[in-house]
Hints:
Blueprint: E1 4-7, H1 12-17, H2 19-29, E2 33-36, H3 44-54, E3 57-62, H4 65-70, H5 72-82, E4 86-89, H6 100-119, E5 123-127, E6 135-136, E7 139-140, H7 141-147, E8 155-159, H8 160-165, H9 170-176, E9 183-186, E10 188-189, E11 196-197, H10 206-215, E12 220-223, H11 232-245
Parallel strand pairs: 1-2, 1-12, 2-3, 3-4, 4-5, 5-8, 8-9, 9-12
Antiparallel strand pairs: 6-7, 10-11
Amino acid sequence: MNSIGLALYTLRDELTEDFKGTLQKVKEIGYSGVEFAGFGEHSANEVSNMLEEIGLEAWSSHVPVDQLRNNLNEVIEYHKTIGVQFIVCPFLSEEERGSKADYLNLAKEFDTIGNKIREAGFVFCYHNHDFELKVFDNEYGLDILFQNTEANNMQLECDTFWVEFAGVDSKSYLIKHANRVPVIHLKDMKKDGGTFAEVGEGKLDIRGIIQAAKEAGTSYFIVEQDKCERTPLESVKISFNNLQNM
């Protein structure tokens, strides 16, 4: 892996206190790219200037589904300025994902949103948790989404932790969606249960997951840790060093 990125959601509290200073620390650890999960109160120009000054690339950005529905033009303009490649839907509320019909409706909607995002020069991705791996008529909800959208309108940002948490082998799942998974979240699971660990400190087969992702055509590997027992900056440094040593 030439380059490893960081999901800034991991450092959400640090960014609230010191946005630019936190980005600087991410660069100092050695990460080359970042995935945003909001921008505080900063304008697109301010964020763009910070990234340029620090020497970080903006790889991707998590944008809540209501923003994609209601403010897509503004979302596109903002992200053009900061220069991301992937605009990602990060989550669905419970009432939107209760049935196969819900997923079919979402697929239609995401196909339209993704088409517009693609025409603007980005790739639209969907980021999974565990709930999309609930089965409807012998199919995962997530697969229903992908079978009913055009590949060039919607790709998968595969969160390998949540796939495993749902009891599915993430390596097989990546291969199943080969050429449609440009970016993945790398995170690890504590050996004694389902909570989060630094990458390389837990029980998941991180080397095997990276290998499967490469075989599936993944180019972007993003570290994320939803909750940390150490300070989040310590955790993301451990994850980065472990990945470098692999």
